[in-house]
Specification:
This protein is an all-beta fold. It has one helix and 20 strands. Bound molecules: beta-D-galactopyranose. Beta-D-galactopyranose binds next to strand 13.
């Protein structure tokens, strides 16, 4: 077990844990983050039970550093088979649909990762409680790690890892409650898959200056690797080659991308890389590695900082 080292209050210190307002290790693992007004809401995997489902924890913050717990947005529920003890629920990602409903998409699985499904839950408030709806294999496809993206015109997308078939970008229905079609699929380059083709996982997407950036990691379980990104003029592609955004060999500063958060401020738009430094022996205490990301002219690059803050009003990082 690692000793749990907290970042100073109000500061992001990559590799150190966030302490929530109750003095507990904030369970911001595999997190999804959305801004609502002047607060950022985060939904994370509560890893109190290690690898199996311990609830989806919800927090909010004015500055991406000071986190207030809102308890479980989705709790372990013995009489709902997908949410029962011993199941796997990962990568909770929330979008607000055009009707104003908060829609949570989830990686829903069995303990042996054989189910490989996407689940949906809905709520009227970001912190929930969420009502669980159902799970499915989208269009019949295996789906493990997921991400979500909502475009400026309200079109929603599900990003989903489907082993040798690649990383799919699915267009969601108008209410985000079902999958309509695959708009693009990408594979890792052959040099990256000597054992056979595969896509990337833990996918997330942003749009900057009209260009779409898709981020993902290689498939190495709880071990970290050099994560990559590709760009395209549309979620439908065509996607560029995949490139590093952190120093090659650093295993993305020993982390796995979860989301990249745009912070639109009065002075600038900044991008915050949100990654997990998984500790398979202490998933509960796995440290966040959150860093400023430079995104411009089709390039994305992580910048190491021992400690930093962001003014979410102006968008300026110090
Ligand atoms: C990783 C994945 C994590 C978790 C882990 C289990 O590949 O990104 O979310 O599923 O495998 O080993």
């Amino acid at each position: 077990m690692s000793s749990h080292v907290f970042a100073p209050r109000g500061v992001v210190a990559p590799g150190r844990l966030f302490e929530d307002d109750g003095g507990r290790v904030a369970q911001l693992h595999g997190v999804g983050i959305q801004r609502h007004g002047d607060r950022f809401y985060a939904w994370g995997e509560d890893k109190t039970n290690g690898g199996t489902f311990g609830g989806v924890a919800c927090y909010s913050s004015p500055d991406l550093a000071t986190w207030t717990s809102h308890g479980h947005a989705l709790a372990v529920t013995p009489d709902v088979p997908d949410l029962a003890p011993g199941r796997v629920i990962e990568r909770p990602k929330v979008l607000r649909n055009p009707g104003g409903t908060y829609v949570m998409l989830l990686h829903v699985d069995s303990a042996d990762y054989g189910d490989a499904r996407v689940g949906w839950a809905v709520a009227e408030r970001p912190e929930g409680p969420y009502t669980y709806l159902r799970s499915e294999r989208p269009l019949g496809n295996i789906s493990r790690d997921i991400g979500v993206f909502a475009d400026d015109d309200g079109t929603g997308y599900l990003l989903s890892e489907d082993r040798e078939n690649g990383l799919h970008v699915y267009r969601l229905a108008d209410d985000y409650l079902s999958v309509e079609e695959i708009v693009s699929t990408t594979l890792a380059p052959p040099s990256d898959h000597p054992a056979g083709p595969h896509g990337y996982e833990s996918p997330t997407m942003i749009k900057a200056d009209g260009l779409y950036y898709l981020f993902g990691s290689d498939l190495t379980g709880w071990s970290t690797n050099d994560n990559k990104y590709a760009t395209a003029p549309s979620p439908a592609g065509p996607w560029s080659e995949w490139r590093d955004f952190a120093p090659p060999g650093s295993a993305t500063y020993d982390s796995q991308v979860s989301v990249v958060v745009p912070v639109h401020g009065s002075e600038t738009t900044s991008y915050v890389y949100v990654g997990d430094r998984w500790d398979s022996g202490d998933l509960f205490g796995s440290a966040p590695v959150w860093l400023p990301m430079q995104v411009s002219d089709g390039r994305a690059e992580l910048q190491w900082r021992d400690a930093w803050t962001i003014d979410t009003t102006t968008g300026v990082i110090s």
